[in-house]
Amino acid sequence: MDKYIWLIPILPLAGFVINGLGRNSLSKSVIGFIGSLLVLVSFGLSLAVFFQIKSTGAAINVNYFTWFAVGALKFPFAFLIDQLSSIMLLIITGVGFLIHLYSIGYMHDDEGFGKFFAYLNLFVFFMLLLVLGSNYLIMFIGWEGVGLCSYLLIGFWYTNPDYADAAKKAFVMNRIGDLGFLLGIFTMILVFNSVQFAEIFPKAATMKSDNGPLYVITILLFIGACGKSAQLPLFTWLPDAMAGPTPVSALIHAATMVTAGIYMIARSNILYTLSPFTMDIIAYIGLATALIAALIALTQTDIKKVLAYSTVSQLGYMFLGLGVGAYTGAFFHVLTHAFFKALLFLGAGSVIHAMSGEQDMRKMGGLKGKIKTTFTTMMIGTVAIAGIPPLAGFFSKDEILAHAYAHSPIFWAVGVLTAMLTSFYMFRMMYLTFYGKFRGTHDQEHHLHESPPTILVPLIVLAILSFFGGFIGVPEVLHGHHELAHFLEPVFHKSNEILGEHHLSESLEYALMGTSVVLALAAMAYAYMKYAKNGSVPVADTEERPALTSLSYHKFYLDELYDLIVRKPLDWLSTFFYNVIDRLGIDGLVNGIGKGTIETSKGLRLLQTGNVGFYIFIMVLGIIAVLLYSVFGLTKI
């Protein structure tokens, strides 16, 4: 397969070119077929690469050419496919294909259908480049590329000013993180004189823990991860990014782009293992993000906003796993989250499609019998994300919580609390949407219908993966053989060796699992009693809410806080620079020189009178001046 690896990213890029150039001439069916087929072929190639690595256990390094060189420092354009990147390839192309297929039905009536598929294909190309790169520079190209595509797709309906603002917000906040990533790369060049994984990681492995330069590198890289993977304080762009079409939410903000930060840290695991202080920072920020986002999700009424804050919270879980050294557990959750969160976003899109564009859950209800396939698949996704066995989310979340307990029981307690909140707000979403009486308009009820097969087939496939996907990571305490951990062992071997294993007794592991499951079931039951049985519905925006509910509903006023402490001071500073430094200083100097020249020339122009007598008079004055100058001996002529 070594010869054909370059085709994996090139095929989606070809789809971008074909659909981009032919967006106004090709039919929608042709555009959808080309865009989806090329991603499917990439998935087939990725599958072949995965099985090759699984059978041989050896990573594949392909060096295509030297991109550029600066003295002895060379920057090759090369790909690395190992156990970690091979799974990411399957997620990107596999889930990506299902989302492309879904988009054929969901975006069929949109005028920008061809442009949308071109952007989707371009995004897949950059995401593949990000995970295929054998060095940080190639990764950074993909990193910036997915940021660009995120901007294009979030603001796809840019004629709506709010959607355009959401795209700009995502772009700017990502640039803050990207600056940290870029500075981290420069620091790596300074410390290791390389950006190659194969050169940096072995050198780092020989260094002592608590190394200053490693702390600088890991913190800078983590800042980049905070921006891309929506962690405090750079997470507020992701909920606003729901302005984009629903397939965008599923592809970018559930399965791929937002997990780029987790992939980058997992890839750089040895650097972080040797930087325990940075790992503590990651754990604390991940835990805080998970809890705050879960608290905000409790009161949201927009079905996509609930899922958006759920994504932020689940990403916090993944960072908690990375921070406590559960690299396999964090990546396991990346995998399972890709299944059930893509399913939930696409299911929400199916609901919105049935409701003629309505996203407010207060205007839904009673959809269980109207769109049965959508309901069934979304319920599977909800049970999975709630961490209820034997669905996928239980196994990956439990592994993170077990490592968190071994690191600190307080981490575990906050993590379990967050898991309970997750169960509550997800079942709240389901009961408000599918149970009780229909609360929409008569026209909406009249047009209620199940989605077409192009939308339902991806939902069914993702539901199956959400149900069975966790079985690749069944822990030994449940008499399983953690296939994923054994597969990823070569990637995390050195880190696991340094960190050592955290052994919990069998009875303690059962107790931890049981506690999280019981609390999740209790939250589900409470949500059922309140929203399904008693028919409680969130109040209208015009009505008053209790103080804590209002605080959660308004997202803890974080956007307003950022506006107060960041935007307004910067606006004032820019106004000051404009009025004082720019206008009075720079413009004053430049314009002053120009005006001085003009006024001087105006004065000198008056000497040119055309009167011969005046010219003789001036000449006499000049002669007298020269004579005086020489008589007083100031100089010799």
Automatic annotation (TrEMBL):
Membrane topology designation: Multi-pass membrane protein
Signal peptide segment: none
Domain NADH-Ubiquinone oxidoreductase (complex I) chain 5 N-terminal, first and last residues per copy: 67-117
Domain NADH:quinone oxidoreductase/Mrp antiporter transmembrane: 135-422
Compartment(s) of residence: Endomembrane system; Membrane
InterPro entries: NADHpl_OxRdtase_5_subgr, ND/Mrp_TM, NU5C-like, Proton_antipo_N
Predominant place of localization: membrane
Keywords for the protein's UniProt record, in alphabetical order: Membrane, Transmembrane, Transmembrane helix
Listed PANTHER family: NADH-UBIQUINONE OXIDOREDUCTASE CHAIN 5
Name of the protein: NADH-quinone oxidoreductase subunit L
Species in which this protein is naturally found: Mucilaginibacter angelicae
